[in-house]
Amino acid sequence: MSNFDKKIEQELAAQAYQLDKLMREEQGLGPMIRSGFNGGLRPLMIIAYLLAILLAAAIVFCGYQFLTVPSAEQSYWGVWLLLAFQAQMGTKIWIWLEMNRASTMREIKRLELAVAQLTSTNN
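^ thats the sequence. predicted structure below, dont judge the formating
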């Protein structure tokens, strides 16, 4: 095995080690949720989480009202229950999309760094 082959093998082993390290760091839901708060939309994420909590309380309240009021008023509370549920679903979908965007941007930046390191070592 030539010196060049050994160098390639060592470089691949180092990259595999770094990749394994990154994979261990990002496993789980906790780091993914925290990543949504690291971007420029942090204040909006906080507002979205607060809105999701308020909407959950509204769902519980409207559901309780729906089940306890006379049948003449059930349609009123049923509509509010559905509206609160839809609003919470939209809020949660936006939160998940923002977390996915932050994760994708982090991966793109890692790729940019890897390409920059590869081009600097080749020159």
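The chain is about 85% helix and 0% strand.
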